[in-house]
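Field: sequence (string)
Field: structure_tokens (string)

Example rows 1 and 2, in order.
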Amino acid sequence: MTQQLDTTLFVHASVNEPHLWRYVYDQRAAKASLDAAAAWPEVRYVFGGHVHMQTLYYRGAGDGLMPFKPQPGVAVPVPKHRQWLGTVGSVGQPRDGNTRAMYCLFDTDAAQLTFHRVAYDHFAAAAAIRRAGLPDFFASRLEDGR
């Protein structure tokens, strides 16, 4: 349910009990996830999804986390002296009213994280969902981004 690569930990949802698919949607949930990452002492970066939103949190001087709303295409410095947790978004089924797909790129050498949004034919994807007989809710979500 988790995958570590050097100082980075990947998880679909939250590090605390990842099998429960907890949403990391606010500072409290982000803190619980980042606190659980302490089981991997060398980890400085945690990346997850599941909330279908893009947010970056970092632990400052105290115990609390600071949220940061990234801007697409703008590199964010993420130095190793802090702990970071990013929800990277989703390629489909957005939850923020924006129909574009989401992803991020982590440049480990420069210690920078860049969030991106890209357009795709979400109407064709919605039509394919309907043709497959899946619930209309999933197609509608692609069309309106919610």
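Row 2 begins here:
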Amino acid sequence: MMENVRLGIIGIGAQGGTYAGFISEGKVENMVLGAICDIDPAKKAMCADKYPDVPFYDNYIDMLESGNVDAVVTTVPHYLHPEIGIEALKRDIHALVEKPAGVYTKQVKDLNEFAATKPELTFGIFFNQRTNPLYQKLKELIDNGEIGNIRRTNWIITTWWRPQGYYDQSAWRATWGGEGGGVLVNQAPHQIDLLQWICGMPKKVYSNVKYGYQRNIAVEDEVTTLLDYGNGATGVFITCTHDILGTDRFEILGDKGKIVVDDSKKITIKRLKTPEPEMSATMSWADVMKIFTGQGPSDVFSEEVLEFESVWGEQHIAVLENFAANIVNGTPLIAPGSDGIHGVALANAIHLSSWLGKEVELPIDEELYFAELNKKIEEEKKNPIKK
């Protein structure tokens, strides 16, 4: 049995460098640094200095075939995740892909289908928010029917402020050809994944998206989306990168109560003493007026508040440990790689609705999305935005 998984890091930028640090400092159980790969010669010098005993490659295929790694993590531009994931699995190397799993569902489907032919290998996705105790608790509350059937979900997540300088730091950022989108593919995939993980996938999406609204970029920096779950339940998802004051508030209304999550730190659960449909059927208007004017029972609901502390880095370490544990002893994955397609499908649907100017149904027409995305890429080549 393998004791330590030798992880190869493909792309040693901000994210890859963070993971290398955690592993080399011995913070990740059952995992050691096997090799590092990057195409930037400056990174080679940096790694020789920082990780002198770790083999360095400028070609990821060479790394995969070196015998130095048991698994890899793909900290590279989004378009490359499926391709690298497939090449690793092809060579019987476990793959942990960064979010999003890809830019469009067509390429993510290829990755998922190939991974399914290698069930003996571990295939995970880096959804670190799934290891966040707050969101694990929230999922448990919803799964257990604590607030009954969901009627509405609202998530406003605008804590992603990014100045123009962020977009100007590399040529591929915030382009259709290099990144495949803006806030939906870069910052918000965590919330898009959590939304469907906790509340299920919507059946239809209608969106109003602004491209280069407050930033000199080609892609979206402002998103408002209406979700239709197909059973009467609706939702709203709002995100942007220009709100320096930022809000993170997630509300889920059910027929037996409401849950509100503030700043990803606090859960407030309001449980109705009597389910709303029953109250509606049995209470007279006079009873309601008594409650409103403070003369009747004020205890229509009970309230519970749960506070959570989040330590930076803990969730990333937890994903790496869970991935290693799955390889070493079969511990179930918190975020199986095949789950990555759901968030991509939702982001694609939000883009497509905006491009077509109408509501779209899920699953979307993948060929149509791909064709529309390619139009954007061609347009961008002809008229690139000068950053």
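free_text_note (row 2): The first strand starts at residue 5 and ends at 10.
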